[in-house]
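We give the chain.
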Amino acid sequence: MTTDSQAKRSPITWVPTLYLAEGLPYFAVMIVARQMYKSMGVSDEGIAFWTNLIGFAWVFKPLWSPFMELTKTKKYPVLLFQLMGGLCLAGVAFAMNSNSYFFITLGFLGLVAIASASHDIVADGLYISNLNAKQQAAYAGWQGAFYNAAKFISLGGLLVLAGHLEKIASVPTAWLVVFSLLGLLMIVLSAYHLWSLPTTPSNVDAKSAEEVFGALSEIIIDYFKKPNIWLGIIFIILFRAGEGQIQTIGPLFLRAARSVGGLGLSTDQVG
C-alpha cells in the first residue's frame, strides 16, 4: 500500500527538496566553512588548502559511484547520506567552542563532503530511475532552481545571519548557530524524504562487488588508452584552473583587510 501511494505521488513533492538537500552540504563546505574559518582567524593559505583538500570528495566520486548500484533501492542510501550530513554539520556547530575546533571541524566537514558526494550519485540515480524521459525534462528546471536555492541560502542568508550575530555575540557562537541551522535543515529534509521519496527498486541487474570492481577497472584502463587522452586532460584542467582559483580566493579577498590588499568587507556584507 505504501509503495503504491509513493509511486503515485507527484514528483513535485520530492524533486525540489531532493536537490535542495543535494546543494546544501556542498555549499556548506565550499562556501560557508571558508567564511567561518576566515572569521575565526585562519590564514587564507590554510583555508584554501584544507577546504580544497576536502573538496576532492566531489572530484573522485566517480570511483565509487558504480558501487552505489549494489543497493536494491536508491531511497534509503539517500536518507542515510542526508542524515549523516545533517549530524556532521551539527557536529561542526558543537565543536566551535573547543580548543581544538579547527581539526575537529575539518574532520566533520570531511565526512559531510563524503556523504554529500555519495548523495549526489544516489539522488541522481533515484531521479533517473523514477522519472521517464519526458518527466526528467519537465523537472530539470526544478532541479536547477532548488540546487541554486541552496547556494542562495548559504552564500546569502546564512552569511548575513552570521555577520549579524558576529556583531552582537562572539564569533564562535555566531557560527555555532549557522551550522546548527544547516544540520537541522538537513535532518528535517531527511525526515520529510522518508515520507516523500519513492521506493522503486533499482532496475540494474544485481552484481557482486567483485564484478563492479572488475568493470570499473576495465573502464578506467580503456579511458586512459584513448588517443591523446593526456592532452585532453591537460586542456580540461587548464580550462577550469582560473575559475577554480577565483572561487576559492575571491570570497577571502573580499574579507581581507585593506592593509593587505583586500576589500575589508564584513561577513554580512559579503552575504
In short: The longest helix spans residues 101-130. The mean pLDDT is 89.
